TrEMBL record:
The keyword Oxidoreductase applies. InterPro entries: Cyt_P450, Cyt_P450_B, Cyt_P450_CS, Cyt_P450_sf. Belongs to the cytochrome P450 family. Transmembrane segments: none annotated. This is Cytochrome P450. Keywords: Heme, Iron, Metal-binding, Monooxygenase, Oxidoreductase. It comes from Hyalangium rubrum.
Amino acid sequence: MTTPAAAQLGLEYKPLEAPQLNDPFPFYARLRHEAPVTFAPAFQLWLVSRYADVQAALRDPKRFSSRDILRPPVDLPPEMLEYLKEAGYSPEYPLLGDDPPSHTRIRGLVGKAFSVASVAAMETRIREIARSYVDALLRAGPRADVVAGLSFPLPMHIITTLLGIPASDGEKLKGWCADENLFFVPHLPPEARMHSARGVAAFRHYLRAMVEERQKNPRPDDFLTSLIQARLEGERPLNLVELINLSSVIVFAGHETTTNLMSSALLYLLRHPTAWQELRANPAALPNAIDEVLRFDTPVVGMMRTATEDVELSSTQVPAGARLLLLFASANRDEAIFPEGAERLDIHRANANRHIGFGHGAHYCVGAQLAKLEMRIALEMLLERLPNPRLVPEKPVPYLPALIHRGPRQLWVEWDAA
């Protein structure tokens, strides 16, 4: 049963508006302490804020299904749904939005194309691409928006390279991904929602053409070709619709999450110049520092699940059919798991790797190692080559209103001239 205090907190959940947009963590702390599981009517979602409850749901796909994981919280108009359906859109997202045994099949097929060896083999190419963007930053400096100059174009360039997409299409792809993000904004004006639908439809048409072309003309050492050709014993290969929807997941997650992680890492490390100097002197500490940033301000705020039966979490009854938002960002600051200053960035934190910034269990992010590799390479180069970097005081750090993803839209940095 939801108490009046918990119900009030659910009404106060406004993540797309200031002050929660810029700093949601005080509100998350209130949730953990006062109403760890509560209903937010604006989004028709149950908020789950404690680490133990989030973990319990992630470990139990039978009672907490991933179906409809990214179904918009507000129903789209029927005419818009028909328009999107004709373009090939569906709110079904392979890999993210399925349960075993379907998920096991999809993950197995993707895993064959996204192996540890494949990611490791990309390191030389990633270094080349990263070096080109860092070179451009230094040439244009000694002041730059590092989101526009590095943390957006680098991951997008890598994911387009992975899929065999022209790097010049990156801006277009990002625009379409932003359109799809708008499906999660309630009370969007009809004209804005229709504009976003046109972008999502164009994205699906683009992906369909790409998949069909690659089916006809497979390429050697190509990730998409590997997905098309991937086979598991006793399982059918991915069909056209699965390939299109899976490609949309890979494009979106492959750049959005890494962009936000990279931007947030730079923001917090520059706000803690002692940590920056420590990492400059000892780059071997970067992996733990990256895990700590993932804990401190995860680029994926949370993921949704659907209760398949009546369930109880933190003494709160959640009805069958309810949709839950598992708040990774709140769980990662749960004092029960991170008792030594959970609200403080500590690049030496011994259990930083217990974060759930990339999810947990069967749905742990398949691209996590690629994201960490990109992040480590970019930070190594910046630590080595940026002389005395600091945030530009007069430039604010704005955040894009988004329910699932979080990261600075701009991050202005200046450094000493050579």
